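In practice, a research group might receive sequence data for several interacting partners and want a quick structural hypothesis before committing to experiments. The following worked case mirrors that situation: the sequences arrive first, and a predicted assembly follows.
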Amino acid sequence: MSTDELPRSGRPRVIVVGAGFAGLAAVRELRDADVDVLLLDRDPFNTFQPLLYQVATGGLNPGDITYSLRAFAARFPHARFRRATVTGVDTAQRRVRLDSGVEVGYDYLILCCGVVANYFGIPGAEENAWTIYSRRSAIAVRDRVLSNLESVAQGREGAVEPVVVVVGGGATGVEMAGALAELRNSGLPLAYPELDPRRARVVLVEMADTLLAPFHPTLRSYAARALRERGVDLRLGTAVRQVRPDSVVLSDGECLPSAVTVWATGVRACDQVAMWGLRQGPGGRIQVEADMRVVGQPDVFAVGDVAARGDDPLPQLAQPAIQGGRHAARQVRRLARGEPTEPFSYRDKGIMATIGRSDAVVQLPGRVRMRGFVAWVAWLGLHVLALMSNRNRLATMANLAVRYLTWKRTANVIVGDPP
Amino acid sequence: MSTDELPRSGRPRVIVVGAGFAGLAAVRELRDADVDVLLLDRDPFNTFQPLLYQVATGGLNPGDITYSLRAFAARFPHARFRRATVTGVDTAQRRVRLDSGVEVGYDYLILCCGVVANYFGIPGAEENAWTIYSRRSAIAVRDRVLSNLESVAQGREGAVEPVVVVVGGGATGVEMAGALAELRNSGLPLAYPELDPRRARVVLVEMADTLLAPFHPTLRSYAARALRERGVDLRLGTAVRQVRPDSVVLSDGECLPSAVTVWATGVRACDQVAMWGLRQGPGGRIQVEADMRVVGQPDVFAVGDVAARGDDPLPQLAQPAIQGGRHAARQVRRLARGEPTEPFSYRDKGIMATIGRSDAVVQLPGRVRMRGFVAWVAWLGLHVLALMSNRNRLATMANLAVRYLTWKRTANVIVGDPP
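A structural hypothesis for the assembly, expressed as tokens:
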């Protein structure tokens, strides 16, 4: 064990663990505060998760939606980034231990390290299914999908039928299935003329009787209809019993062939959280008070997907994470000035899911509901605006525009590295 | 062994092996010809090799300079693409054997499968050095450079000093060293404030007494001066004796530490060419006649880097490859019409190398020489024009523009996947 050699300025030090929506919002909010900020993440980049399904289907480059955390930290005079995983939190001594063995002291700690896929103990799921929750796994899905199409097109022996099974009918599953259907309908016939397009299938399996549970019933059924029209084989009210390397066994006994199984059923707090000795609730989420401080910890905040308030667990979306990160940063400033904390009140800005090119569902507060092209324009505008705060904006917009304008002619504009 | 199941139209079949500059030019030239074209490549994408050094230094996304060959083939009604390596050529039966075991018949064969790095038998070079001749290896270099910087910045035990040694002072080595120097000078101090920038070094080792042998002496010395001004440690007249995992031993006995060694000393024909039973010359290049037909083979052409004419080996650059591919395609059309072939005459369009942002050397036919900003604008214009023929144009230009306009503020806009 070595201790931390970071320069000490005498200003309070705030450690932000996790550089997702919540972590970046917290660092931004502390921009003018008289504190030193140390941002930690296991990856050297921030990932714009809402567009990972585009990476997984070859529509965007990984670099279009990831952003160097060192470049981010360089924008703030008192912020530093360090690539690290937090292996321990000593709240008595106010120190965190990093995977390198180094210990770093803090005055205030903001935990927002996000979540990982929840496999709910389904046999074979963790081993054989792929998630699209990280840049690395989205790239792996893309390369597997493309590599499977190549093998099938060449008639290679042992090639699994080109079927992608998406498990989970939430926003992630719907967006992934929609993008895959588009790839199949528009790209496949051009790029793989030797392949009978009817062989390529997209199956979406959802345990509940509807897709997109948090949405209004009219939008749920609209999404189901829109996916079916695009040729997605929807299996509602169906659970997954087992995932095998090249098939998925359903609760009705059917064994679906599956070249690539995408797991999108939900999330849970990542494993290291359990080592921190903080109070955890359902899904491993860290229990917080009304002001987003961890139960019993006056200097530690938890926000974003990893945190849950007893009475009101907050949805695991970008908005609660951004608002939570900002709130935690504001409370740190208040505490540093000797002021009491304020409770966090989440301002619902609505939810949205895209189904495909020119099609989406959007539900805003006040019973405003949109679907189809109008909803898609709203979805696109919001995502482009969000990306604008990163430096990737020009290239990403250009890629999206190229894809939109030339899709029919070009199919896979962006290619992967199939093994 | 299975035989080929591709549909036969009764039209002559042309097989193009390798989808680099020469292969794509040949397929384009055959657009209106009454032939079926089968394009083969070991990768499912074409790579715009002249910008691979940008990928290797994190300036461009891999997807910005690679282009789906299936999307390419879809633009031509009589062209198909198949991902394959050619393991054998049976010129008597006019068939090629693919790595899948399939054999495919041809009427005309155009070989343009390019080259691989030549290690000249230097001990340890193949095992411990990295090339930037393919998308995969450029990504590996990028991820190693970034990962080394992370380790050093964190003071991890066993981290090798952040020194990159580039071996070879041709255009590839000069461009790579220039881009690395820029990364060090502009990006490093911002992105890695905890790292003393003097520790990060770029060394360029060249056996000859000058850089850029094919250029006029004034441009050679200009390039050397420009690199030195950017802080590149130039070792001219120095050979590499051995490459170790974290150092390079020079001919003067010095052992340079090296976190990443980039091998850019030259190329030779790839290994499978030796299995084809065709006549090979220096560097394994296939010997061709004046009309670019392989010596003794009336139906087989070889063009691009892999081909050499006895008297005039042609430079291994994009232009001879493009012109050669186009020429071979024209000769196929002539042969199919029963006309005799024509000799290939290479039209020199000049050579260029970029040294860094706003700096390059350009040498055009007719003693036209440019250097500095003017040369860089010419370089940029030409590369943007060349990329325009692909679909990646918008995104790549946007990425280049972002990088140019915001470099000082953002450092590594695009990040890799360090292990």
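Before designing any experiment, note the following. Chain B has two domains: 2-116+268-336, 125-265+350-410. The longest strand of chain B covers residues 36-41.
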